[in-house]
Specification:
- Strand 4 and strand 5 form a beta hairpin.
- Helix content is about 15%, strand content about 25%.
- It is globular.
- The chain contains four helices and nine strands, in the order ββαββββαβββαα.
- The chain has one domain.
- It is of the alpha+beta class and about 190 residues long.
- This is PPPDE domain-containing protein.
- It comes from Daphnia pulex (Water flea).
């Protein structure tokens, strides 16, 4: 996928091949929008600066989790009695935040770093790339903590932080550079 073009495809997050790219999925609540963009860390500020209003202030920040697969019994640090060693802290983590005009999510998977934007909260909190997020019979999608945008950070400042910390170029690793690490860093920054 060329960096200067838009595309309606998403990297296959089940492939295990990290692309070193950020994917921006704009208006994910609009199936016909087709506004999906792929860019490198170096292109991020310039490209997104042309596509979105980066001056929007981040008003609310939420830390979300969902199970990694459909058979997972639980995903959090608090474990049911007797299951202490079965699942641990295995879960996908991502950040959802709100500005005056949009809802956003930021996350990392084994293929890319992804940012989604929607007018509808559920399309970033409960869905990824227009599809339902993973749930299981035993556990689902949860907001585990939230806060107001105490720092009055803007979307531009968040993007600058992502570029300065080189998050897009940090290859996904199941233990050392995963979704939880990125979610923790973004939540702490905001």
């Amino acid at each position: 996928m060329a960096s200067s073009s838009s595309s309606s495809s998403s990297p296959d997050s089940k492939s295990g091949v990290y692309t070193f790219r950020l994917y921006f999925y704009d208006e994910v609540d609009n199936q016909s929008a087709g506004k999906d963009y792929s860019m490198t860390n170096d292109e991020l500020l310039q490209r997104l600066g042309k596509l979105i209003d980066t001056s929007e202030v981040i008003q609310e920040v939420m830390y979300y989790t969902n199970p990694l697969n459909g058979w997972q019994l639980y995903k959090g640090a608090v474990k049911p009695t007797g299951l202490e060693n079965l699942q641990g802290n295995m879960h996908h983590a991502y950040i959802v935040f709100g500005t005056k005009n949009w809802w956003w999510s930021v996350e990392k998977n084994d293929a890319c770093v992804a940012i989604q934007r929607s007018k509808t909260f559920e399309f970033v909190s409960k869905k990824y790339y227009r599809g339902h997020r993973q749930t299981s019979v035993f556990t689902g999608i949860d907001c585990v903590k939230k806060k107001t945008g105490q720092q009055s950070r803007t979307v531009e400042q968040l993007l600058e932080h992502i570029v300065a910390r080189d998050y897009v170029n940090q290859k996904y690793h199941f233990l050392d550079q995963n979704c939880q690490h990125l979610a923790d860093k973004i939540y702490d920054y905001l």
